[in-house]
Write a structure and sequence with these properties.
This protein has 14 helices and 16 strands. It is of the alpha/beta class and 406 residues long. It has a 7-stranded mixed beta sheet with strand order 4-12-11-10-7-5-6, with helices on both faces. A 4-stranded mixed beta sheet has the order 1-2-3-14. The protein has a 3-stranded antiparallel beta sheet with strand order 13-16-15.
Length: 406
């Protein structure tokens, strides 16, 4: 067995398909985001503008967050010291879980080390706790949800994206007494569309199913206190389990679920992904705690972000760039080819100091490769004009089609 050959062939397949991923070497400039420094050059770091961060509201740069983390670091030190049940449970963790439960109007919340882990651990554990459970999953659900459903060992039914008629057809085909769980997202981050939460909850009520919503691209971003689309649409009380992240709009790191106390207690007691991993650093928990509390009181960041996204979409459309329809803060620009998407990204970085990563398969289907822009409240209008002009020049250079105004 030639192991090296197998590994070489695996990497070569990615190169031949034009979707080999290269991680950029950068440092963000504290207090000046989206400005950063790129170390991809031979003559020292060069200034760049970041356009693809999931730190949507720049909370990772917020003075309250940084001050809270610095204070915690000097108060309790760096690490948690163990799992939650062995030395790694701190007052910061408990306070953060209380704030997150309150954010979603639930009895309790449970922290995980990432949003991926929270989805995987919770869904896999739920499936094992509910004998004969059938999980109904939107076809565009995140890889972490798919992994959790697979690891549950449950029967899975995949419904067409946001298609409630198809979902009902699948629900009706199952026995009335079979435990059922509907798993879906609120904001789908590659297309920027939103799920019909109330319609899905209506079906859950009709067929006696539990509901599980992934709000990772919506928490902090929507609703009067940042509770996500389910808060904005006054649907949170209809959702059994709300899952979110602490690494996007809240600007730090981690994941969580919020639900009634008995569900939280079951996941806490049975999920290996929670039980057997070192807990979040209390320094991180303190930073998130400051971010959550701030965004419950302040809509300034949300309003600024929404205005920036609308402005950039308008500029792209006016320039004839193929911006995809999106009703959220996500601004996807369709390319449709992995090699060209990577080429555009490379030119933007090397010649214009613009950083945006190409999004390729398996994150999106083949033939729908794109650039995904996430303008925030600190992206200025001059930055947007410069970006749009750069994209138009590159589109012309590569003989790509623009929708020129008549």
């Amino acid at each position: 067995m030639n192991y090296d050959q197998i590994f070489d062939q695996a990497i070569e397949r990615l190169h031949s398909e034009g979707r080999y991923r290269v991680f950029i070497d950068i440092l963000r400039n504290k207090g000046a985001f989206p400005n950063a420094r790129c170390f991809a050059h031979h003559n020292g770091p060069q200034p760049i503008t970041v356009w693809c961060s999931n730190d949507y509201l720049s909370m990772g740069q917020h003075p309250k967050v940084i001050a809270a983390m610095e204070e915690a670091l000097h108060d309790v030190g760096a690490g948690a010291g163990g799992t939650r049940n062995i030395a790694g449970n701190t007052h910061f963790h408990i306070e953060l879980e209380k704030e997150l439960a309150d954010l979603h109007g639930k009895e309790g919340a449970l922290l995980f080390t990432s949003g991926y882990v929270s989805n995987d651990a919770t869904l896999s554990t739920l499936g094992k706790l509910l004998p004969g459970c059938v999980i109904f999953s939107d076809e565009l659900n995140h890889a972490s949800m798919i992994a959790g459903i697979r690891n549950s060992g449950c029967e899975k039914r995949v419904f067409r994206h946001n298609d409630v008629a198809h979902l009902e057809e699948l629900l009706a085909a199952e026995g009335a007494d079979a435990p059922k769980l509907i798993a879906f997202e609120s904001v789908y981050s590659m297309d920027g569309d939103i799920s019909p939460i109330h319609a899905i909850c209506d079906l859950a009520d009709k067929y006696n199913a539990l509901t599980y919503i992934d709000e990772v691209h919506a928490v902090g971003m929507y609703g009067p206190r940042g509770g996500g689309i389910s808060e904005r649409d006054e649907a949170a009380h209809r959702i059994d389990i709300i899952e979110g992240t602490l690494g996007k709009a809240f600007g730090v790191m981690g994941g969580y679920i919020a639900a009634e106390s008995k569900i939280i207690d079951c996941i806490r007691s049975y999920a290996p992904g929670f039980i057997f991993t070192t807990s979040l650093s209390p320094v991180l928990a303190a930073g998130v705690l400051a971010a959550v509390r701030h965004l419950k009181q302040s809509s300034e960041e949300r309003d600024g972000q929404q205005a920036a996204a609308a402005r950039l979409k308008a500029m792209f459309r006016e320039a004839g760039l193929p911006v995809m329809n999106s009703v959220t803060h996500i601004v996807p620009l369709m390319v449709g080819d992995p090699v060209r998407a990577k080429k555009i990204s490379d030119i933007l970085l090397a010649e214009y100091g613009v950083y945006v990563q190409p999004i390729n398969y398996p994150t999106v289907p083949r033939g729908t490769e794109r650039l995904r822009f996430t303008p925030g409240p600190t992206h200025s209008e001059p930055m947007m004009r410069a970006l749009t002009e750069a994209l138009v020049e590159i589109w012309d250079r590569l003989d790509l089609e623009l929708a020129r105004a008549a």
